[in-house]
Design a protein that fits this description.
- Helices cover about 75% and strands about 0% of the residues.
- It is elongated.
- Helix 3 (about 45-70) runs antiparallel to helix 4 and helix 4 (about 75-95) packs antiparallel against helix 5.
- The two termini are about 40 Å apart.
- The protein has about 350 residues and is mainly alpha-helical.
- The protein has 2 domains: about 5-145, no CATH class; about 150-345, Up-down Bundle (Methane Monooxygenase Hydroxylase, Chain G, domain 1), CATH 1.20.58.
Length: about 350
């Protein structure tokens, strides 16, 4: 699609703001659609934080502009502006403004250079139009095709589950085909980087849910999925580092067949997770209804590990096999733990 819903929502909100500003007859109305564009490009939770920072930056910049303009009049203008901007940067850092201090800097520079003769009208009108634009931007994210942080986070986790599923399938295929081709360490690092990037979306979800967000089922579900992903991705890194050797004995191939069967079962389960998240409609998504069915080849490994002929295998090879089996068991446990926690979050 050339135009998606988010772009159409942004254009509609900015257009409404611009039309209202034009009809109102008040000066500097163009700051209103600019504020809409600055906060209306993400989710509702992210827009709250961007709007807060923009308003705080506007207030801080306006105060420092007035103090600096009247208090540093005896200094050369470049030095006075530099001192004011330095104070803004220090105060912005103290207030943890990541975006707001830039807005405040623009107010200081523009007010000093372009609006020094009418600061009494320019500052109030700019703040009014900025606040109005932020409000319209937030309302548009709530009313027109709502963009909620929880929906965004769940979609991203669904995409990560898809990548994990394909990686598990590659690991299983590598074991069955006795091939050196398969996931590389770069694939593990890519999955890990995606998970870290996903964690960056959680503050916007917390802001959107407000006070007591840490106890909200949505946040607890996201934490549950995050814990599961972390353990499942860690398993990928361990399996890649301990890749099976070629031309193994028949007994070792049986052990690898059990691993491959479990990996395929986990891959199928991840696909079910992906479907459950995609099928969500307003309420919390439900975990798969049936318990995770472990393949018989995996369950039979206990008998095969008791085979006395394993003693003839070199110790280094046995350590590699033991580490792989432990990683597989940890991944199985991670998935079962996540589904128990997931199910407990649903309303009774």
């Amino acid at each position: 699609m050339l135009i998606n819903r988010a772009e159409l929502r942004l254009a509609l909100a900015a257009g409404l703001c611009n039309g209202f500003a034009t009809m109102s007859g008040l000066a500097y109305g163009f700051y209103s659609p600019l504020a809409v564009v600055s906060v209306g490009t993400g989710s509702y939770g992210g827009a709250i934080e961007l709007g807060r920072q923009r308003l705080l930056g506007t207030v801080l910049g306006s105060i420092l502009l007035l103090v600096g303009y009247w208090g540093l009049r005896d200094l050369p203008m470049p030095i006075a502006i530099a001192i004011t901007l330095a104070a803004l940067r220090l105060l912005g850092g103290w207030l943890k403004l990541l975006v707001g201090y830039k807005v405040g800097g623009l107010i200081v520079v523009m007010g000093w250079l372009s609006h020094s003769t009418n600061l009494g009208t320019w500052i109030p009108l700019r703040f009014f139009w900025t606040a109005f634009g932020v409000l319209v931007g937030l309302l548009s994210l709530r009313l027109f095709w709502p963009a909620r942080s929880f929906d965004t986070v769940l979609k991203q986790y669904g995409d990560l589950f898809r990548d994990l599923r394909l990686t598990y399938q590659d690991l299983a295929q590598r074991l069955v085909q006795d091939s050196a081709a398969g996931p590389e360490l770069a694939d593990y690092r890519r999955l890990r980087a995606r998970l870290i990037s996903l964690r960056g979306l959680r503050p916007s979800l917390t802001l959107e849910l407000g006070e007591g967000a840490s106890r909200h089922p949505s946040v607890q579900l996201v934490q549950c999925l995050d814990d599961a992903c972390s353990r499942l991705i860690l398993m990928v890194g361990g399996m890649v580092r301990r890749a099976p050797t070629l031309n193994d004995s028949a007994l070792i191939e049986q052990l690898h067949a059990g691993e491959a069967a479990l990996l395929r079962a986990l891959s199928t389960r991840l696909e079910q997770w992906e479907v459950q998240l995609a099928a969500r409609r307003r309420s919390l998504p439900s975990p798969p209804s049936a318990a995770l069915a472990l393949p018989q080849a995996w369950l039979d490994l206990n008998r095969e590990l008791a085979d006395p002929s394993l003693n003839r295998i070199p110790l280094e090879r046995l350590e590699r096999i033991a580490a792989r089996l432990l990683l597989c068991r940890q991944a199985e446990q991670a998935m079962q733990d996540a589904e128990r926690t997931w199910g407990a979050l649903l309303p009774r």
